[in-house]
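Structure tokens please, single chain.
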Amino acid sequence: MRGIRHAIRSLVMAGIFGFVVWLAGLFAFVETLGKLRAPFSPQADGIIVLTGGAERIGDGIRLLEEKRARRLFISGVNIQVSAEQLRRTWPGHEAAFECCIDLDFRARNTIENAFESAEWVKKHGFRSVILVTARYHMPRAKLEFAAAMPGIAIEPYPVLTGASRIEDWWREPTLIRLYASEFTKFCAVWLKQAVS
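Here you go.
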């Protein structure tokens, strides 16, 4: 019995220690997010936008029209949204859609975003990309993209949204869930890549 109690106590202590380490990591992760800023004057061969918010696509189109890159790839477009519907959502940008915007309807998660984007980069012979996604998603996305397209320079372009604000995040249950989930996913990707 004494051995069982000792084993249980050790497991409980290990669990508590693990949680404290994870919690400290979460706070450090969010603090790092708070320092992420979009570059003032990015320049690359292509732009990759990961869907999930209208601001991301809008920023990607603006960067394209500012001639920050030659082409734009929007990855993870909902299969129920047609290319024409997408054009109508951003009126006034018909020329950009016609000449320089490619759509990906296949990707359903960040790993697939990275895979489809790598194929697009290879097809066009690009050596550098601007990666546009939400600020909270950028660390994990950059890990996945760096693994999927080694040798390609990736310029992060984090999009700041009200849904990902940093101030007093620990007081908002929605933000706690968002950041805790994203940090845990980031750790899983980092560990997977570290041991592979």
